[in-house]
Amino acid sequence: MEMVQKGLLPRLEIRSADPREPVEVISVPKPWRLVGAGNYAAVVLHPEEPDKVVKVYAEGRPGLREEVEVYRKLGRHPAYSECYGAGDTFLVLKRLTGVTIYECLRRGIRIPEKVIRDIDAALEYARKRGLNPHDVHGKNVMMIEGRGVVVDVSDFLKDEYCIMWSDFKKSYYALYKPLLLRFPVPLPGPLLNMLRKGYRLVRRRES
């Protein structure tokens, strides 16, 4: 925790201009390394602690205390990370090392149906623990050695129903499984980004 408080936070610069888009990471102090960025926070790691990551929330972004509560309710489960500790603006989490489903699509990595079933089971487990899986999409789920895991649980305390994972599954079974499962090909990042923005626009209009 002291390493985070003194070595990371004073020199880490992140900002969030749009809560619907990933935060912008301006600078990360050495030897810390950026792992990824979501709509609320950036995730970094220190080479001396390779099995842990630090999730730092951007200024003004809500949800840290809620995320701590989500991890408390989840307990230990192979499809989720664990929270080892928290500060005012950060969480220390168990590192999940794999490839997001989004990256699998972008790089042409095969996504077995087992991964989809694993994520379904993980989300059902969360529901049984009194949580409401929310904002589950290709960048928030991951494949690790052929198994599916859920990377981001920060919105699992929200009340409203979220259809994103259901829509992703429909696309998987209607398009990916018959067309790309046996012979996956890389899908360009700009195409995936266009599809993502188009999907959000359609859902906003429908709601």
UniProtKB/TrEMBL annotation:
GO MF annotations, alphabetized: protein serine/threonine kinase activity
Gene3D superfamilies the record matches: Transferase(Phosphotransferase) domain 1
UniProt keyword annotation of Transferase present: yes
Key words, A-Z: Kinase, Serine/threonine-protein kinase, Transferase
SUPFAM superfamilies in the record: Protein kinase-like (PK-like) (SSF56112)
Keyword Transferase (UniProt): yes
Protein name from the UniProt record: Serine/threonine protein kinase
Lineage: Bacteria, Bacillati, Bacillota, Bacilli, Bacillales
